[in-house]
């Protein structure tokens, strides 16, 4: 979200400085990159308004980045498979997707019901006893590719980049810049897009930010086959776990949701075991895959599951942009654009009042 805000601010004519401490555990690096909000567990209409608009914005953003010279982004509409033990089990999901199409949300794409055994034809590692529901609109993105592309496009037109720690600098009740390496860098607006670390950054100035880290462990498996980048996303009905393919014979499986983890940046036996148990139940064909990598990221979680986007009432000159939780790569690029427009005094594409950072969470 911070990289997107920087990119969009430069497009709106702002002078931008990006300061990043680059701590281990950035959620963007660990995230799977599934862009399919129509299958989200959240039915909150406020979340849906944001997430559906975010998915709709992706193709436009890709075009803008390509025009800016950034072509090394792995973003593809590969389609998605919802899988279950029977077609009957998938009926509620089918009705939900059909209702979205009837509302004019065409990004869902084409929907097909797949009888038992047919999902395995699209994702050959799956259990042959599974039925499926295919939707063509689901997409996959490499979060790191996208983050770097957004930043590179911003730096190419003059944005500055600084590596290290910064502290918010106050004058009365106004944030007037940041303190970096004993230097004060003045700013009209400071955007805190520090993910799960936002609360720690704001605490010294007396601002309470209700966001906490949730550890997620995600596995990267290496398989013998090629063409894994063409595999559809796999989203089970009865599980929180997913599978998807990336280039270089890689299948990604995840992820744990470890609330109360703090910033404990470890790979745990329990986490890896839990993921493998679920993955091999769904896709026993992966039992001979090589465990190539385990990534750990800290999701910035809020109490009500909605992000914190906007200006806190108690301080001027500050904008908070955090709390995307498990939907960071879906919502982040679009939310960064909203934040940029807010900073520049432009009309935002959706109503942001529901995401006020000092709202009372229920």
Secondary structure layout plus pairing:
Layout: H1 2-11, E1 17-20, H2 27-30, E2 34-35, H3 45-67, E3 75-76, E4 80-84, H4 87-102, E5 111-114, H5 119-122, E6 131-135, E7 139-141, H6 143-156, E8 160-163, E9 167-171, E10 174-180, E11 183-186, E12 190-192, H7 198-202, E13 212-222, E14 233-236, E15 242-246, E16 250-254, E17 258-259, H8 269-282, E18 290-301, E19 308-310, E20 318-322, H9 328-343
Helix pairs in contact: 1-6, 1-9, 3-9
In brief:
By secondary structure, this protein is an alpha+beta fold.
> What class would the helix/strand composition place it in?
alpha+beta
The CATH topology annotation of the largest domain reads as: FAD/NAD(P)-binding domain
Task: Bin the strand percentage.
Answer: 25-35%
Largest sheet: 5 strands, antiparallel
Morphology call: globular
Euclidean distance between termini CA atoms: 25 Å
Radius of gyration computed on alpha carbons? 21 Å
Tally of DSSP β-strands: 20
Describe the protein in words.
This protein has helices at residues 2-11, 27-30, 45-67, 87-102, 119-122, 143-156, 198-202, 269-282, 328-343; strands at 17-20, 34-35, 75-76, 80-84, 111-114, 131-135, 139-141, 160-163, 167-171, 174-180, 183-186, 190-192, 212-222, 233-236, 242-246, 250-254, 258-259, 290-301, 308-310, 318-322. The chain is an alpha+beta fold. The radius of gyration is 21 Å and the shape is globular. It contains 9 helices and 20 strands. The strands form 6 sheets. Strands 13, 15, 16, 17 and 18 form a 5-stranded antiparallel beta sheet that branches. It has a 4-stranded mixed beta sheet with strand order 5-6-4-14, with helices on one face. The longest helix is centred in the first third of the chain and has 23 residues, at 45-67.
């Amino acid at each position: 979200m911070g990289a997107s805000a920087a990119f969009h601010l430069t497009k709106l004519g702002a002078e931008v400085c990006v300061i990043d401490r680059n701590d281990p555990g950035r959620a963007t690096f660990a995230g799977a990159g599934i862009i399919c909000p129509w299958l989200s567990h959240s039915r909150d209409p406020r979340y849906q308004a944001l997430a559906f608009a975010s998915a709709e914005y992706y193709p436009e953003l890709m075009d803008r980045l390509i025009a800016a010279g950034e072509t090394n982004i792995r973003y593809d509409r590969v389609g998605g498979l919802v899988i279950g033990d029977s077609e009957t089990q998938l009926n509620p999901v089918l009705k939900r997707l059909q209702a979205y199409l009837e509302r004019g949300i065409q990004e869902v794409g084409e929907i097909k019901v797949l009888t038992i055994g047919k999902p395995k034809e699209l994702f050959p590692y799956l259990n042959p006893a599974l039925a499926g529901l295919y939707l063509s609109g689901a997409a996959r993105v490499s979060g790191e590719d996208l983050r770097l592309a957004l930043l590179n496009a911003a730096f190419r037109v003059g944005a500055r980049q600084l590596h290290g720690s910064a502290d918010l600098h106050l004058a009365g009740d106004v944030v007037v810049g940041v303190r970096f390496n004993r230097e004060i860098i003045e700013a009209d607006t400071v955007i805190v897009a520090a993910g799960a670390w936002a609360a720690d950054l704001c605490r010294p100035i007396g601002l309470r930010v209700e966001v906490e880290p949730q550890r997620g462990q995600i596995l990267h498996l290496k398989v013998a086959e090629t063409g894994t980048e063409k595999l559809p996303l796999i989203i089970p009905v009865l599980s929180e776990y997913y599978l998807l393919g990336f280039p270089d014979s890689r299948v990604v499986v995840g992820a744990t949701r470890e609330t109360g983890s703090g910033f404990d940046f470890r790979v745990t036996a329990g986490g890896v075991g839990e993921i493998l148990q679920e993955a091999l139940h769904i896709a026993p064909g992966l039992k001979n895959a090589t465990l190539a990598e385990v990534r750990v990221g800290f999701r910035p979680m809020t109490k009500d599951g909605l992000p914190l986007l906007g200006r806190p009432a108690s301080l001027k000159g500050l904008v908070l942009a955090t709390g995307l939780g498990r939907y960071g790569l879906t919502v982040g690029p679009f939310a960064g654009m909203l934040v940029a427009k807010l900073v520049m005094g432009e009309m935002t594409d959706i109503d942001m009042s529901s995401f006020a950072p000092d709202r009372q969470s229920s």
